[in-house]
Amino acid sequence: VGQETFTEGRQPVPEEVYMQELDAEPTTQDFAALAKDGAEYTLLKAWALGGEAVAIAADGKRRSAAASYAIETSSRAAAQATSVGAKVVAAAPGVAKEALEATPAAAAEAARTARASLEKGFDLISGGKKQT
């Protein structure tokens, strides 16, 4: 039954069709060109992002918004971790109880650390000058 199902309505394909070489194997020059293009893109992207980081650090409102965004993102991550923790509690109550209770405090500490790191980084970029 199985063979009949798969052979019914099939059309034979001549060997010369499926044995054709589609593309030549890449050469060392092909790999070198690919690496060169990747390096150029990486440098250009790093330059653009570096300029954007300096612009954000120099602008007090944008710097504050970036720090607030980092804190908001970490708070969302904490909420998601708490949700996952609740599911773990259902699966293994004894082990998960302690982890679930520690999650909000750990998330709050992560948010404080993130904010302090961002502020320190911005201060370093701006040469230690306080921007408003």
- Helix- and strand-based class? mainly alpha
Number of helices: 5
SSE pattern, N- to C-terminal: HHHHH
Q: How many distinct beta strands?
A: 0
Mean pLDDT: 77
Shape: flat
Q: How widely separated are the two ends?
A: 78 Å
Backbone CA Rg: 28 Å
Question: Could you characterize what this model shows?
Answer:
With 132 residues, this protein is mainly α. The protein contains 5 helices and no strands. The chain has helices at 2-7, 15-18, 28-58, 60-91, 93-125. Helix 3 (28-58) packs across helix 4, helix 3 crosses helix 5 and helix 4 (60-91) packs antiparallel against helix 5. The longest helix is centred in the last third of the chain and has 33 residues, at 93-125.
Q: How would you sum up this structure in a few lines?
A:
The protein has helices at residues 2-7, 15-18, 28-58, 60-91, 93-125.
